[in-house]
Amino acid sequence: MASQAEIIRELNASTDRESQAAASANPKVGRVVMAFRLAVVPSICFLKAYISKGGPRGGASAFRDAVNAWAGAFLKEAKQYEITYADTEKAITESRDFG
């Protein structure tokens, strides 16, 4: 069984690859669309996972798996947002601090 640190490293590397690929595939997505995706995509992923595991009849394990699916989707979308807008936000922050 893999250690927790190995699982976290693997998850981080996987979400990095996915978010880089998504950001390079569509680099001109607007902020509103990115914010919408950040809220909606993980929620849809949660519902799909929860329903596929049996919903309320699936018990705690279905809910846990759905929350894990939500977290993975949220990480991917958050990293994509960061990749797309990190430099812009940093420049705005630095320009405010300059004055």
By DSSP (H or I, 4+ residues per run), the number of helices equals 3
Rg of Cα set: 17 Å
Please, what is the average pLDDT?
Answer: 78
Q: Helical content, roughly?
A: over 70%
Q: Would you identify the regions where 5 or more consecutive residues have pLDDT less than 50?
A: none
- Secondary-structure-based class equals mainly alpha
Main beta-sheet strand count, sense and barrel state: none
**CA-based shape:** globular
N-to-C CA distance? 53 Å
Number of strands: 0
In N-to-C order, the SSE pattern is HHH
- Taken as a percent bin, the fraction of beta residues is under 5%
Please render the helix and strand layout as text.
Elements: H1 4-25, H2 31-52, H3 59-98
Helix pairs in contact: 1-3, 2-3
